[in-house]
Amino acid sequence: MQSDDKPINGQHNPNLLDLLAQTPPPPDADLNKDHGAKRFAQLRTGWNASWEQGGFLHGRWEELRQAPQAGWHLMANWIKALLILTGVCAVIILLDTAGDIFDTTLNRLAGTSAASELWGVVDNPIRAYIAQHTTALTISSSVVYTLWQLVGWFGLIGGFIGATGARITWTCWGAASVLAVWSAAPADGRTVATGIAVLAWTIASTLALRGLSLRPVVNNFLPPTPAFQPQIEIRPEIHTPAPAPASDEVHPPQR
pLDDT higher for 10 or 254? Predict the structure, then answer.
């Protein structure tokens, strides 16, 4: 098995498997020993050889020691892969922890009577609207309600990170939700229910539409004006024609 590692000081840098395959048993090994003892002695010899100058472990240690000074572009590829894998694992752990905290917070908020009643003012009309308008469809109202929630989460999260399509989805989703509340809410409390839905949608839009400005952007592309430099003086050059050379020939007068 050949090594793909870069040569160190112009020499081939063998890996650990090459050293184990090429390292002979120590000279003091007894021929009567069993195969396990010989193999252990060979492993110990290969381990010691890999830490010598030009060995596999010595080269990896030098790459690791020089990584802070080398920077991201010059460090070894295996160090880059290890750092990326560590970062991905850290992000997954943080997201999992944040999801648990968020779920616990929602459960606590939903457990209070005031929060549940306030959410029911918006949620119950939407459930009723979906149930009324899915009777002739081949899909159940619960599936449509789940799809409605997923679209809302997509618009909220995608709009928060600045995706234009997600922000358009969030706007259409909120307008459709407000219309559903207006249509399915009881007649006596229709105005209040719609107002609460609009307020909830507006508050959530501060996250979904974060950084969005309605102020028009005006770009004035004017050519750059040359800088006036009084120390530069431009003098026009006047070229005077040279006089014609005098001729010694005398032309006789013509009759």
Answer: 254
